[in-house]
Amino acid sequence: MKLWTGRFKKEIDPKTNDFNSSIAFDSRMYKQDIEGSKAHAAMLGQTGIIDLIESRKIVDELDSILSDIDSGKLEIDKSAEDIHTFVEGELTKRLGDSGKRLHTARSRNDQVALDIRLYLTTKCNELKSMIIGLIEVVTDKALLYKSTVMPGYTHLQRAQPITLGHHFLAYAQMLLRDIERLDDCKKRMNVSPLGSCALAGTTYPLDREAVASALGMNGVTHNSLDGVSDRDFCIELSCVLSIVMVHLSRFAEEIIMWSSFEFKFVELDDAFSTGSSIMPQKKNPDIAELVRGKSGRVFGDLMTLLTVMKGIPLAYNKDMQEDKEAVFDAVDTVTMCLTAFTPMIDTMKVNSENMRKAAAGGFINATDCADFLVSKGLPFRDAYKASGELVAKCLELGTTLEELPLCEYVTVCDLFDDGVYDAISLERCVSDRTVYGGPAPKCVEFQANRIKELLKNIGEDSK
Known about the structure:
This protein has 20 helices and 4 strands. It is mainly α. It has 3 domains: 14-104, Orthogonal Bundle (Fumarase C, Chain B, domain 1); 113-146 and 159-198 and 223-358, Fumarase C, Chain A, domain 2; 366-424, Ribonucleotide Reductase Protein R1, domain 1, CATH 1.10.40. Strands 1-2 form a two-stranded antiparallel sheet. Strands 3-4 form a two-stranded antiparallel sheet. Helix 3 (30-46) packs antiparallel against helix 4 (52-71), helix 7 (108-144) packs parallel to helix 13 (322-347) and helix 11 (232-258) packs parallel to helix 13 (322-347). The longest helix has 37 residues, at 108-144. It is elongated and about 100 Å long.
């Protein structure tokens, strides 16, 4: 059954029907479609637009349809044009003329806009819970390795000593911002367009706020044209998810490097690695690589939505049917990545000794050497120059700052004394960096506990 028969004298071409149909991907919104229809039908009865008893019959039968789909008793007909057509057709089959009254004062334009808002709001909540789960794992790891010294990098060159715990918490902060963006996006998403109808509202005395309230939404859209043509929330969610994937991809890139033979900082659990078909020694970080690769897919979904929406006039255009496949794919891909990524990090083994060894070999305490001279009264620029000369001397002699004899220090600057060795020890370099947000173990512990408290509050706010 087509909802738009009457004007047309010929049946739509079968191939054109397949091209036009959206049931293959919008059928996942059947719960939201039915919940929206129930709220709409209840409002029609409460306002007297249709008979109250008939309204209740519609709501009850919609509940029955939902139950039958959930149980598998009723299969969604993939030959239907879309999920709205299928549900309304099934309702009419069961209730006759009463079922035909459901679509009073409603269009598929505002109906689909409602369905996708409700569906994506649910997905925002699910994704938020998954990101919280990853943050919890990362934060626990940070506390476990709060004193594990490793080199911090800039330009992928060893720069200054930090701790692995501090490094982990940098990703926790990124993921916390992702949660904030999801919540912010959800505020604009979770409003009801029902009542906008096709584009110009309706002459029926609808109670739009009652429908929004029944669906747990924050309010209603304020312009009927915008209500049916807005897909900003799809674009915004895809943008948020793209940023999530940037963070996962960066993290994955580091895991890939760290698990290589050249670094040997970490070893991935066998459950999250694969081997080679001809090289028996290989242990490949395929899960991390797939996460890194799938980031491009989510970025592509965002570009699809931007391109679809950039040139279409108000109000609804069929181009907008492309919104669902793109945003659904973005949601599905990020969900899949988080499902694999979180336990991969949780089960990962850390080689603390190799991290410490790498930190010791890169002159990453040169800044602390300069700071030692500053504490003796030397201007920083002069201290910087002296420290640089010492690094050059170490390279010439094939040694490190920790092993360089004091007599060599004194030839560069007579302010040096035995205290320099304590000042440039890696543990001291890290533990003295107690500025707020720094890598000192006690700072890492403070940051981690702060994040745990934030997560507790986020969890309570979500209830």
